[in-house]
Amino acid sequence: MNNLITGLDKFNNVISDVFCPMSCKSLPGYSSNAFKGELSSRSFNKTAFSKISSGPIIANRTKEDISRVSDAYYLIKFQMEGQGIIRHNNREAKLDTGDFVICSSVEPYELEFAKTYKQTVLSIPQDTLQSMFHSPDDYLGVRMGNELPTHGILSQFVYSISQRMDILEPDSLQNMEANVLDLLITSLKAEQKLKLKTSEISETSPEIHLQQIKRFIDLHIKDYRLSVDFIAQAENISKRYLHMLFKGLDVSVSRYIQQLRLAGCYKDLRNKEFNLVSVSDIALDWGFGDVSHFYRCFKSQYQVTPRQIRLKAKV
Fold first, then answer.
1. Which of 1, 61, 240, 300 has the highest Cβ tally under 10 A?
2. 181 and 229 together in one domain
3. Prediction pTM value
4. Do 249 and 241 form a contact (C-beta atoms < 8 A)?
5. Which of the 8 DSSP states describes residue 83?
6. How many CB atoms lie within 10 A of CB 92?
């Protein structure tokens, strides 16, 4: 797919179709009608590569935009030329040429480009990346600087592919896709090691560490894998220490997770937008693996059944 796009509204529509719904606006002093951008995209086996460039712009992925599409993707944004600012997951990443950042299509984020720029975007289904690396959400909005050797090698390789992806044979692209994914996982593991080395959080600062654990749980609350083992491994701490952190809350880790999931189900059951979604599907979406167990927990928590909550909301 190749596009030379004139006008901000048209550009907004095209990138919303290729990536996910977005809300774009031009910077003060720049005409929306005179706005120009370019986009080319190619789908591979598991992923898709897109080259994008345009004039100055601010693009927001809002909660309203997220509600318009259910597909979950990670968007790895490589800065090929110019500079950009990405605000995501309460973080701000300032990208120079050769840097990259990970964004999630199911979370709000903002992109700002004060001048013309070029990016290559690698789109990966959420399940695909999570099966290869257990906690990519921990790195949403984190600048992956090209000064780190693994990041620089990955960025250069992606740049080389993007320059030639229109002329490469499909078989060659499939092989290169596997190499890109391998390099991406290598980069994430390198970033993980760097995080552990530079982290200010240790077992001597339990209050700060507890807040980090709670943020991690919030990010992964719909992931059926979320458990004591999953958290301990992701945070590189012992299960004993994790249980100790929650003692001050007078609730176990598992119960804390369950309460958040039940609250999420309760909210959806009262939301008329979910009237056509079955109770079972809502429970599964919030990470409950056993629907019968969900019904028992819900009744114990709220003294009413999920169906009664839904009926009451319809009145």
1. 61
2. no
3. 0.63
4. no
5. -
6. 13
